């Protein structure tokens, strides 16, 4: 079967030209530099293919020469348009424009040479020959000269520039776009291979022109079916250039492919650009297991740039193309120094305000409790020495009334401090049993006075130590127990503590239950309101401010907890809450019942031995407090010295050595803690190592630990309890 190779070749050319025409129409529907440069490629190939088709079908050698010259100069323009397209696609600005300008000059010169060949035939001529291999007549180029070889050399030079440009961009780009560069390079190599095959085996037709058309169709598809790199770069540059924040992009392999002006300014003043790649790779390895958040963020970190004395917040997000293929990461960083400094300043101001208010409430507490201390102290002397029953009865009334007054003062001060936001929660490690013992010791006398049973039930699997604000927790529990005792006429008050592990968090559950008067359901909502006393007629005669439960509620809210209430009218109430307290020990608490049995077996009534001897310094600015102290110790053989402020105490301690010193906290001229520090730091002071007991009227503050950490031997709150004072003498004398 005879095959008309010329007809087959022209048919293939026609099919490619139709596809090329469609691509050209597509480029006219697109906007932007990339579409324009690709349109020029398509048009130049389309015209060159027409010129070659006319060359193949020419009716004589002169016409064939004209079309071959036009085809040859068309190849120049095709390569030039390819170069312009590649420069636009790779977004190469200055350097690319310079190369393109020089190439334009070369192409114009070569085009003039090829056009002149029509008339002078100085480069080549065309003759019709019969190709016996294919059995067809075809025009062949003959008599080529140095001008034609210069034309070929220039075409290969342009091809080499395009290839070098593509390879360079392929190496520097991210992996996803590298695939497209490889396809473009392969297409371009295919053109050169087709041209080389045509020359080597001397085919009757130049096969490369068909591949020029095929490659342009493929380029059109890849340029408009993927996000153009030039568009990505242009958008990124326009946006990031206007930002003061640092913006950088990395490919999947951790190579830096983009850094905006802010990033370069930051890095060039401190490090090299490689530093950005190194910290990115370090973070990528560290956070490799992180799943991206909904916004794509998979790690954030702050870095201190010491050379600039600034703190930058770095944030990394994964980049995906429109087909959700991972193509890299972009990192933004902004200067948080001013924000952090402002936050620190606000924090310092808030802390200073809290400190001022704390000092204010401490002074108020001191001033209000000092006269109460004197009243109780003097009254204690009456109860000790007076034998007249009527006078003793009056003294008991004074004692009860003063203790009630102190309780009311404490409630009002705590409520005021909470509302002033000057009462902070200070989590510290504490022992549960230590807290429960303290609560039991305070609540038991109140319960016994009303003939109530005080029950303590502890989960045996409670950890020995927890992390929380023991003082505030104890205050809440004690308030609830005091309330329960206050509103229970007979029966019992129970305290129950148990723990609960929920995932990584540990919770302490607290319940206080009584058999008291109970609360109507409609009144439960009013329980936690300040200044409210529900069922006023029924509770008339029970003393209180109505602030206790409100204080509990607000303290628990600060601990991210909530007070729950269950109550049955005339039968009793159950108050409970759950508070997060991280475990600090795997050891369980000791048995509380054993502790109670030991306490009962070793019940002691502390009294100061009448034969006690020693030299005592009592430092207090209040004369009545001094009188009370002297009265409480008058039956002993103590030699007692008085000082009325810290300065006086320092002078006396330099002259006399004491066995024990009692030091008031707040005094004129010099406070007790200041005097203590100066005494301890003075190696020549005779009382450099003497035990010092801190006295303060500031209850409710976390002062015990503070004073013990300072070096005080112990801490006593006013009003002084005769039993506690006796216990102190026994411990330290």
The top-level CATH class of the largest domain is Mainly Alpha
Number of helices in the DSSP assignment = 22
CATH architecture of the largest domain: Up-down Bundle
Rounded to an integer in angstroms, the radius of gyration calculated over CA atoms is: 48 Å
N- to C-terminal separation?
130 Å
DSSP, total strands: 19
Largest sheet: 5 strands, antiparallel
Query: Helix fraction?
Result: 40-55%
CATH superfamily of the largest domain: Rhodopsin 7-helix transmembrane proteins
Instruction: Report the structural category.
Output: alpha/beta
Give the overall shape, derived from the CA principal axes: elongated
In the CATH hierarchy, the third-tier topology of the largest domain is known as: Rhopdopsin 7-helix transmembrane proteins
Mean pLDDT: 80
Strand order, main sheet: write it out. Answer: 4-3-7-6-5
Low-pLDDT parts are: 292-296, 601-605
Number of domains: 4
Beta-strand portion reads: 15-25%
EC number: 2.7.13.3
Catalytic activity: ATP + protein L-histidine = ADP + protein N-phospho-L-histidine
GO molecular function, one term: phosphorelay sensor kinase activity
GO cellular component, one term: plasma membrane
